[in-house]
Design brief:
- This protein is mostly helical.
- The chain has one domain.
- It is globular.
C-alpha cells in the first residue's frame, strides 16, 4: 500500500500528539492515534496502520476527546494508505 501524497505530521499536530501521550487522562485509542501521528513527523514513507486508523476514528467520534487528541487523530487519518476501489 502506498500513499498518494508524501505527507508528514506538522508541528501543530506533533505538539498535540505529544501532549496527548503525556496526559494521564487520555484514552488508549487517543494515545494510539497520537503515537502514529508522532511517528510520522519526519517520515513521509510511513503510513498509519489499520489498527491506528481505527483508533483515530474512534477518537474523533468520541465527544469526550480533547482538542489535542482530535488534532493528532486527524493527522493520523490523513496519512492512511489509499484504499483499493
Amino acid at each position: 500500500m502506498s500513499k498518494s501524497k508524501n505527507e508528514v505530521t506538522g508541528k501543530k499536530a506533533a505538539s498535540a500528539a505529544s501532549k496527548v501521550l503525556r496526559s494521564s487522562g487520555s484514552s488508549k485509542s487517543a494515545k494510539s492515534a497520537a503515537g502514529s501521528a508522532l511517528s510520522q513527523t519526519k517520515a513521509p514513507s510511513k503510513v498509519t496502520s489499520p489498527k491506528a486508523g481505527s483508533a483515530a476514528s474512534s477518537t474523533l467520534r468520541a465527544s469526550s476527546s480533547s482538542k489535542a487528541a482530535k488534532t493528532a487523530a486527524g493527522s493520523a487519518l490523513t496519512q492512511r494508505p489509499n484504499r483499493k476501489k
